[in-house]
Amino acid sequence: MKQIMESEHVFPPRTTEMETFFDTFIEMIGEKRIDSIVGMSPSFPNADYIIDKYEMLVELKILESDFIKEDDIPNLTNRILSSQKSADKAKKCNLLEFQSYFKEELDNSLVSLIRRRLGRIVEKANKQIKFTKKNGVGVIYKGVLVIINDKFTKVDHENTFRILCSVLSQHNSSVDCLVYTTVNLWVDDGTDIAKLPWLTAYGDNTDDVFSGRVNSLGRDFFFYLEKKGIIELKHHEEFESLDKFPKMRHIPLD
């Protein structure tokens, strides 16, 4: 299930300490950080939270920067133009055809680059959840990776989520669910209402009970956002699939 929260285009102050913000949410629903169980410096990589009422281990990752660095596009451009494939293409194409070829190559290269960088985040979370269970915490609980996109705006939300889904399918078996959401990055589908998404993707070991618990966690989070004065629950909508989800374009706040 996909969820969305809506607000008028009057944005609240930016939430700056995102991890502390999420810590407070976990406390609000009566749950706790795992370091309260294993200590602040355990000998193994650990997940961030344990949610007993939903039988979940939760790892929080925050996208705090754009993954496209200043020199990435020039480097990719040079690599594409210096390739044998481009040399062969230049001999056979006119200028417009070559420009179309180059744009497609650059787009594909950027997606691959972003996928590798997001992949490292998912792989680390997978390891943290896996070793938390191995060390006796939440052994039978499901693993949930919550990704809050705070500053990555080079790619729209929908395609960022699709890239994360493709990464999730690659041997990250300890992550049973990936949640993609935002707090500061609002989206627009061409209406007069700004939106915050809560998107979910599941691994192979899921069932209706677990997905229902993840949906409940999402509703808890939106209730928390309303309590903080960020959104209004009266605008809450739920969608069964991404195909039915409104087109999500970033709204620049600066």
What can you tell me about this protein's structure?
Helices cover 42% and strands 20% of the residues. With 254 residues, the chain is of the alpha+beta class. The strands form two sheets. The protein has an eight-stranded mixed β-sheet, with helices on both faces. The protein is built from seven helices and ten strands. The chain has one domain (2-67, 127-250). The chain has helices spanning 18-28, 35-38, 72-81, 84-92, 95-134, 157-168, 208-227; strands spanning 2-8, 32-33, 49-51, 56-63, 142-149, 177-181, 187-188, 193-202, 237-239, 249-250. It is globular and about 65 Å long.
Q: Tell me the number of helical segments per DSSP (H or I, 4 or more residues long).
A: 7
Structural class: alpha+beta
H/E series: EHEHEEHHHEHEEEHEE
* Main sheet record: 8 strands, mixed
How many distinct folded domains? 1
**Percentage of residues in helical conformation:** 40-55%
Query: What's the overall average pLDDT, rounded?
Result: 86
The proportion of strand residues reads: 15-25%
Distance between the termini: 31 Å
Furnish the topology, listing elements before pairings:
Layout: E1 2-8, H1 18-28, E2 32-33, H2 35-38, E3 49-51, E4 56-63, H3 72-81, H4 84-92, H5 95-134, E5 142-149, H6 157-168, E6 177-181, E7 187-188, E8 193-202, H7 208-227, E9 237-239, E10 249-250
Parallel strand pairs: 4-5, 5-6
Antiparallel strand pairs: 1-8, 1-9, 2-3, 3-4, 6-8, 7-10
